[in-house]
Structures are given as structure tokens and as C-alpha cells.
Design brief:
single chain, alpha+beta, six-stranded antiparallel sheet, 3 helices, about 40% strand
């Protein structure tokens, strides 16, 4: 049974293996930041902050976009052609599930993974 004062949420997670998409999105902080923020806007979610970090000159990037609805995170390992994605939305005032799926699908598609493992968790 769901608690009376709970906040519904959807948490989408993915592991993307053998990514064949644009190399710059795996390696370049500015490219990944711009793409993530663009896709957040395209999905109809609201960015309220962000933090991205580059691991060395040719290393991966970790990025988090804080959403009014919760968050999205992306972690890249270019040397392994591996990416993890995480999109979490709360549904306190409206149902954001479709927007979460749109954002997650757009982020995953750009990396063109050979293999993907997706997980979806309803949180309340």
C-alpha cells in the first residue's frame, strides 16, 4: 500500500555497451553538456542547475542536470565505449513519465549502443 503523503516517481536507468555514436559526446564536456541540456528542454522538463566534470584530457565525462522534476545523470567511459544513464522524475503535480521516457530515449539513441540494458523503477 502506498503512503498517503508519497510522491510518485519514475527512475529510468541504462547501461550502454559498445557505443558507436559521436566520439565527442563521450569525451568532450562542452558537447555532452550542450546535448544534455538541449534534450532536457526538448522533453519538456525544466533544468534548474547542472554540474559536469571532465576526467583528464581524453577521459570520460560525468554530468548531472538538476531538474525541477528531479535529475538526469550521464557517465561516459570512452576507452570502453560505455555509458550509464539515469533519469529520475517526480510526479507530484503532473505525470512526467512520458517526458522521462522521451529524455531517456533521446540520450540513449545518440550513443548508438550495440547492447543496452534498461531498468525502470516506480518510486513512491
Amino acid at each position: 500500500m502506498k503512503p498517503i503523503d508519497s510522491i510518485d516517481g519514475l527512475h529510468l536507468m541504462g547501461n550502454l555497451y559498445g557505443c558507436g555514436g559521436e566520439d565527442r559526446l563521450l569525451r568532450e564536456i562542452d558537447a555532452l553538456r550542450a546535448f544534455c541540456l538541449e534534450q532536457v528542454g526538448n522533453s519538456g522538463l525544466t533544468a534548474v542547475g547542472e554540474c559536469f566534470h571532465q576526467f583528464g584530457a581524453s577521459g570520460g565525462v560525468t554530468g548531472v542536470v538538476i531538474l525541477a522534476e528531479s535529475h538526469v545523470s550521464v557517465h561516459t567511459w570512452p576507452e570502453k565505449r560505455f555509458v550509464t544513464l539515469d533519469v529520475f522524475v517526480c510526479n507530484m503535480h503532473c505525470d512526467n513519465r512520458a517526458k522521462a521516457h522521451q529524455l531517456f530515449d533521446a540520450l540513449a539513441a545518440v550513443f548508438q549502443p550495440e547492447e543496452k540494458r534498461y531498468y525502470s523503477v516506480e518510486r513512491f
